[in-house]
Structure formats: C-alpha cells, structure tokens
Amino acid sequence: MPPRKAIAGTNLEQAKSHNRRVVIEAIRTNGALSRAAIARLTALSTQTISNIVEELESEELLRAQATLKGARGQPAVPYSINPDGGYSIGLQLDHQLAVGVITDLSGTVRARIERPVDRPTPAQAMPLLAAIAGDLMRKFRFDRSRLLGIGMAMPGPFDVEGMTSVGPTALPGWQDFPVAEELQRLTGIPVTVENDATAAAIGERLYGVARNLGSFVYLFIGTGLGAGLFLDGHLYKGSRHNAGEIGHMIVKPGGLECGCGKRGCLERYVSLRAAYECLEIPDPDHASPELLEALLANGDSLEAWVAQAIDPLRQAINMLELALDPETVVLGGFMPVGVIGLLASRLDPLYLSVSSTSARAMPRVLVGAAGKDTSVLGAAALPIFSETNPQFDVLQKPHAF
After folding, report:
1. What does pLDDT average to over the chain?
2. Three-state SS across 17-30?
C-alpha cells in the first residue's frame, strides 16, 4: 500500500507568498482599497497588511491613490494595481490560428498579433510562436525587466495515448512534445503552458461574467470541447493537467464515431466541428466560425445542429452540476457569441440537479462576456496568476510519510 498522504504545515515564506496573493486579489476584485479595508476583507492583521502593502508598493505592483477623507483621524490612502508594474505575453495556438498579446498587470492589451496556421506540427508552430513573441515586443516598447513571462494556451488533452494527436479535433505531432521547454529555449523567456479551456476560465474570471465567482465551470466550445474548472477559489487541473476533458465523455452510447476511438462522445455533438459536419459545410477542416455567424445573421437555419446538440449539452451541464456543484456554468470559446446565445436560449428545461433551487443568485448557465480572446487573455495571465489569485492549496501541500 502506498504511503498515506497528510496535510503538512507551511513555512513562513509560503505564508507570506500566499498573503501577498490574497491582498492583490482583494484589490483586483474590489478596486482601490485602503489598508483598513484590505484588513477587513482578508481577515489579516493591520500590521501584516501594512508590511505587504509597503513591499508591493516598493516593487511598483501597487500604487497609492488620492487620499480619502474620513470622519476622524488621518485620511485613508487607497491602493490600486499599478498597470505598469508588470507585463506578460499570452500566446494561443489552435488549428487555424496563432494569436499573441502583451498585457499589462491590469490586463489591458497593449499589442495583439495573429497569424494563420493549418493544424501545425511542433516543427511548424514553435518558430512561429517565438516570432510572434518577438514581434509583440517590438510592437510595444516597455521595460523588459518588467516582463513576467509567457503563458501559452493550446488544445488538450496533454500526453494521452490515442487522444492527444488523433482525429480532426486534435493537433498532430504534439504527443510528448516539451512545449514549454522548447519555447523558452527559442525566446529566452520563462514559459507556462495550459490547455485552452483552463486558460479561458482564467480569462473569464479576470475579465468576464465570472469576475467575482469562487466556483464555476467554463465550457470552451472550439474545434472540440473542453471545460475549465475554477473551484473554491482556485483552478482544478487534475493529476496530469487534463481535468475538464469532457469532450470525450460519452453522451450517446453507440453514437457518432469519434477520433479518440469511442462512439457518442460529447464533442461529436457540441463543437465547431460537429456544427460544420451536421450543417454539411464544405471542407470542415478549414471552415471558420464566422461561417456560422454569417448563417445566423442571414436568417439561415442552424436548427439541424442545435436540435442535435441541445440534449447532449443538457446532459453535460447536469453531470457537471451534480459532480462539482458550481455557482454557474459559463458557455464560451471560439463559437460565435450569437450562436452560443442561441444554444443557451434552447437549454430550458435543464435537468434536475443540485443547482435546481429557487434561492439561486444567478442563472445556472451564463454566456461568457470576455469574447473570443478569452483564452489568450487567460494565457497572458498565467505568468502572473499566482500573484492575482489566492491559491489556498499552497497552505495544504501533500506530504508523504
């Protein structure tokens, strides 16, 4: 029997790092705050808050605003995120497009570049991604010492035999390829890689409808389908960073054949690829989401696909609600927002689940608001996400006896 894992204690440096994240997250979520307000929101002592704020201000991650007049005593000084305190590069690779952005610490996009691709192999994509990073830094001039790193989003699942590189919704040749290491070698910049659905969950929480949520599921509808899981205040990635690969969950036993070798997988009914095939759009390998948007705008019927997709989507939402009990499920990804809205409008009645309560503060399903760049914005946040999101598992790291 393997050794039992227990919750270990934490050392002072880990607690300090955790508290810094908590303070920055409180300010990012609520806007400019005084030290007293931060202390109330975080339950940290006044002295701890003072030390952290002074440290973050000296590092130019926070900046003091005009003082607020109080009823008595010294006026309170509010602190806000300093946008120029740091910059990061976000890259996203998909079947037909490579996108890059530079964002500041507030998440504002300072430069954006996109390049067409065609289901690229690592040998084709790596030099292109490195070139995009270089072009971004030439397009937007900034203090390079403030560059925090590169975050990259790409389709999963990662390193799963028979799934990572097989079928029309997978990218070929990426099985076991050391993406982060190779991109770092080409650019000289630290690189963090995440699947596109997880990156999109980060982007939606920072910039979209999930901004103040502690638990939600982001359904990323792209060429395939995946889910980003934000649970109890932090991302859940799974033991091999493949949590949320629900596109290969069987919703119709014996149904449509999937590239993974099974039949009836969810993404065979709910995905861009599924829509192209159901609507008999020519050359689905090179079809664009804008085609669906144009069909909708012209009044052409998407009914054949919606009718095929809606019950599998209801099943997926039901399973996610029962398994994870999220505050809401957010629909987004590369699927045009109008088409996602059409899907969302047809979901009722949803199946009975733990989310079926009249006391709900928000709908069970929301359409994402961060747009088609949600994943690349989330990717840009990867190098700084540990500074802008309290990850409570830092204080509960597994320890083997």
Report:
1. 87
2. HHHHHHHHHHHHHH
